[in-house]
Design goal:
Strand order of the largest sheet of chain A: 1-4
Distance between the termini of chain A: 13 Å
Number of strands of chain B: 10
Structural class of chain A: mainly alpha
Order of helices and strands of chain A: HHHHHHHEEEHHHHEHHHH
Strand content of chain B: 15-25%
Structural class of chain B: alpha/beta
Oligomer: heterotrimer
Largest interface: A-C, 48 and 48 residues
Number of domains of chain A: 1
Chains: A mainly alpha (347), B alpha/beta (262), C mainly alpha (294)
Radius of gyration of chain A: 21 Å
Shape of chain A: globular
Number of helices of chain B: 11
Amino acid sequence: MHIGDFKETYSSDQAVFINATSRFWLGVLFAVLFLFPFVAGDYLLFMANLAGITIIGAVGLNILTGFTGLISLGHAAFIGVGGYTAAILSTRFDLPFLLCLPLSGLMAAFFGIIVGGPSLRLKGLYLCIATLAAQLILEFVFVHWESLTGGIRGMNISPPQIFGYVLDNDFKFYFVTLVMVILCVTFARNLFRTRVGRAFIAIRDRDISAELMGINLLQYKTYAFALSSFMAGISGCLWVNFLKTVTPEHFPLMESVRYLAMVIVGGMGSILGSILGAIFMTIVPELISTFLGFLVNIFPTAMSFLFPLQQVIFGLLIVIFLVFEPHGLAEIWRRIKNYFHLWPFEH
Amino acid sequence: MKILSIENISLSFGGLNVLSDVSFDVNKGEIFAIIGPNGAGKTSILNIISGFYGPEKGKVFFNGKDLSHIHADKRAALGMGRTFQNIALYHGMSVLDNIKLGAHTHLKTGLMSGLWYWGKAHKEEMELRKKIEKDIIDFLEIESIRKQPVSSLAYGLQKRVELARALAMRPKVLLMDEPVAGMNAEETEDMARFILDIKEEYNITIVLIEHDMKMIMDISDRVLVLNFGRALTHGTPKEVQKHPEVIAAYLGQKKAETMEKG
Amino acid sequence: MDIFLQLITSGFLVGGIYALIALGFVLIYKATNIINFATGEFMMIGAYIFYSLMVYLKLSPFIGFPIVIICAALLGFLVERLILRHMLGQPNISIIMVTIGLGSILLGLAEIIWGSSFRSFPPLFPRKPIILGEIVLRSNLFYGFLMAMVVVVVFLLLFKYAKVGVAMRATANDQMAAFSMGINVKTMFTISWAFGAIAASLGGIIIGNIGGVQPTLGHIGLKIFPIVILGGLDSIIGAVLGGFIVGIVENLAGGYLDPYFHGGVKDLAPFVVLIFILLIKPHGLFGTKEIERL
């Protein structure tokens, strides 16, 4: 229970975790996240890594689409650019993982600016279609520039090392993922406390008046594209180092759509929403497959419906959230929290 | 002392002449009102001054500086504040963040330091908050709503928050597009008082468009009358009120003739 | 030279079919400002329904077509009433995503009902290829093109002269004005969706008849975007022209460049063209730029 709102400095008034209660729960969350790998089994560890890597990508897309209002259908391709950069740098040039990580981010950001830059003159739907074209063109490059990308077969890489310490299993990799997730989320959260983040939101809400308020639209839209693709690149680099392989089929248009779905289901314009959305969209397909696994005993052919059923449920989730809960899981979470805010004296 | 000079501005949209050869000066520290019937081109003038439209002919000078090649966002940095006819607040942000956004050009935090939010960026935000609280929130009496999302506010309050955001821009000239449109008498009076206070306490020059004649005549130092994109006349409120063409534009030709005779 | 003429001609024919599909898309966009990412899936469902009527119920195509038209209209009607009506006033991204979600549902359902395997239609047209001088055209493509053109012309006439068409144009032009003239704008939205779905499903049947039908038939729907960007999102004539241009461009690119890249250029070329066009004209070739107001 938490009552009252008394603060003596503006600094404490503007802190993200404003009171002792929320700081306490944040501490608990960190403790759980740190202890999790010591109790979790192989499967859960694998899923946790996957979810973490996805969170970084989703936060990136939310910065671009949810906060700045620029729709991108090419996010998966930028993740792919990061992934391929990491694979090429580590196999061809033997660069260490810790160097590959920022370089993959920078390379993706560079591509983001190339794609985003000229498209910044475009509004809404035209921009959306330009990013669609970028997605398809990059996919084509992944498949057809065989000498660089290994074509359809892709590339395999050896397990990453940090100062000679080999990250050869999901347990060890978990801590890398965790640190990167914490960094990305903190950075994103910080940004929206400053003028840069406010400018992003202003561009989303009313780009014309934002310009008259002194915001250079071109500059800030480029920032949004660069930052979003940088995070995509980081996510791609982690993904490749986690799976130790990269192929074009990891980054299709459908994957871009899946990221947009995470942002929507989680909550557009909410960092927490990106986290919830990414976790949700990682878990749901697993639940469907588990459910069908049970059905196999009754209908032996149940498993053949796995893919189409996932498609249907994926589509239904998007439609249902947009129609009934456009602010996504973040809003549901806020309501739950408010309910417990004065619990048990809610009336 | 001129702060703003508009020289021979013309603008048209697809054959429709919105403004033809309009010129006027605004003196430092005055309240300058632009009036005229709907479609006279009032908002277009503000849009040209802010740099949202480029005029086909003519120039805008600000403190003697030609603004022709200065982009809209740079004009804000030079000291041009603006409020809008149809409130243009950012609905995804709180009142406080909307106001802070106005200070955008006076802040320095870049992308990198914003990500870290450490040292300078943090300090800058805190100083900004202090300044806004002292100079704007207290002044406009909006302490109680500062944490609310703007979309939840009543119309009159939204207009006031928009004014707060414009003040956060620390303008030398404040362009206000119908600041009291749609307000009741009490809200109008509050707003008129704020406008006068802004002029006197902060020494900001104000250019405003309004239909509320009573308020215009009460608070403005000089008035420009536009009709069908042309400047009919300008002068003090008293002079303008007596001008036959103004009466004709507002009340119709016949009425004007009878008034002249009577 | 022969190859060039051959590629151009068959590209032209394919383009006519694209024009029909793009027409359905633009009908919806003009009236409702909604980008329908599920157009491809509408095509696929239309093709499957037609296939089922022909193969399972052994109906004549002359009964099959009207039934598909009714089903498509119903699908458009339901989609508008059940989903998109709730999305009025939502941001673009939400509306785009809701049609993507819809597409995903339709794709999954089709695979659950009809399976993922490839099926080809029983012959609808005479098999004999059409020979014009040195150019040889596949009969399915040729007759499919004729059919598409008939449908396009019917739609254009309907849009120009019929009462409902005039009302739709009025709505597209200015919703408030149309509303005050006694046009039921919401009904117009529904009708546009129904017409859009009909155009898409007929296009789907024609495409299915040429290349067979499977759930991924809807991927052709992506080609709509270069077409409508070329034509400008809100121009019906532009959509028809864009259809022809894209048909020819992709056939030429496929014919001349695919051998060097091991395939894939054919589908990509329209998008490369699209990028260049957007760089030069941010609102497409025939699109209108709106005057922004404050």
